[in-house]
Design goal:
- With 141 residues, this protein is α/β, with parallel strands linked by helices.
- It has one domain: HUPs (Rossmann fold), CATH 3.40.50.
- The chain contains 5 helices and 5 strands.
- The chain has a 5-stranded parallel sheet, with helices on both faces.
Length: 141
């Protein structure tokens, strides 16, 4: 299997940044491109056309551009994608829509009650993605 497109989901956390650094190293060695994706979910009480949604989209676009700016210029081709919807569904759909060969995503390794209450986007992506998913564990400071 040849890896030409690497999808990297980000929630702008240290774990996502660690996964992006890992993906950059891989992309450099494989001459692959990176697709940096942030998926966000709007409150059930807000309309996608509301001022709240438009403001969030503007702020998230800025945050995504800042995350992309951490990729050294010219080292790898990088594309940015902002998607509205349930995060794990949007990540899996983005991988399919973009023809990703690999998803590289960060995880903090939640366990126990925290995992039960919050779930794990990474776990759901691993279970539902059609392409391989590499999780990069970040233990934090």
């Amino acid at each position: 299997m040849q890896i030409r497109k690497i999808l990297v989901p980000t929630d702008f956390s240290p774990a996502a940044d660690a996964a992006l650094r890992y993906a950059i190293d891989m992309a450099r060695g494989l001459s692959a491109e990176i697709h940096l994706v942030h998926a966000w979910q709007l409150s059930a009480y807000a309309s996608p056309s509301s001022d709240l949604a438009k403001g969030m989209e503007r702020d998230l676009s800025r945050d995504l551009a800042q995350a992309a700016a951490r990729v050294p210029a010219g080292e790898v081709a990088l594309h940015q994608h902002l998607r509205l919807g349930i995060p794990y569904v949007e990540i899996v759909d983005a991988a399919r829509d973009l023809g990703a060969d690999l998803v590289v995503m960060g995880t903090t390794g939640k366990t126990g009650l925290e995992h039960f209450l919050l779930g794990s986007v990474a776990e759901r992506v691993v279970r539902t993605a059609a392409c391989p998913v590499l999780t990069v564990r970040h233990k934090g400071p």
